[in-house]
Amino acid sequence: MVRLNEIRQGERSVDLPDRFDASLYFIGRIRTPWTSRLETPRQGRLDGPTCRLELDAHWADGLSGIDAFERLEVLYWLHESRRDLVHQSPRNDGEARGVFSLRTPVRPNPIGTSIVRLVKIDGPVLLVRGMDCLDGTPLVDVKPDRTLFEPLAPAQPGDFQVGDT
Ligand code: SAM
User: Fold this and answer.
1) What's the 78 CA to ligand 1 centre distance in angstroms?
2) Which atom of ligand 1 is nearest to the CA of 113?
3) In the CATH hierarchy, which fold is given to the domain comprising 26-81+111-146?
4) Residue-level pLDDT at 159
5) What is the rounded distance in angstroms from the CA atom of residue 137 to the CA atom of residue 105?
6) DSSP letter at 157?
7) Which atom belonging to ligand 1 lies closest to the Cα atom of 43?
8) What's the pLDDT band for 165 if we cut at 50, 70, 90?
9) CA 63, 32, 90, 85 torsion-angle sign
10) Distance of CA 104 to the CA centre of its chain
11) CA of 79 to the centre of ligand 1 (A)
12) For 75-129, how does the pLDDT look when each residue is reduced to its tens digit (9 = 90+)?
């Protein structure tokens, strides 16, 4: 059930820390057909509407070579989300779970990720299918889809393991 900014039965918030640990550069904006969270899909679909990733001219040079990839991973800042709800009730039924066991947009760092199909490159604009965010959502990063890369080699005898001294 899509939320706006309400706190539901069973949910818990925390005080936000009094300082940030890092800062971001938004590299552009995402243009989609959706202007309300209530109508935005919960997850994008590769056969969804074509959306625009509009990179700021400042970063456009970073797109060279991207035409080699059919699928991309897009990271974006869910800028209308509250950030303090550590226990949430997605169905608004009194049953609540920790934020890190959910793909809720309401999180301490409201970063969304989508795997999208690259349809066309038009200068600093990528036309893609598979998004699920509001029109005007800030763009954080674009990378080739990680599943297109070979898995890392399996561990070998003698490799360092966490817990080794
Ligand atoms: N695919 C991403 C993920 O899994 O990380 C986002 C999934 S999140 C469940 C998608 C929902 O976030 C949408 O249905 C909408 O309710 C909400 N949403 C979309 N854009 C938003 C924005 N800019 N600010 C806050 N909420 C947003």
Assistant:
1) 6
2) 5
3) Elongation Factor Tu (Ef-tu); domain 3 (2.40.30)
4) 78
5) 12
6) T
7) 1
8) low
9) positive
10) 10
11) 9
12) 999 999 999 999 999 999 989 999 999 999 999 999 999 999 999 999 999 999 9
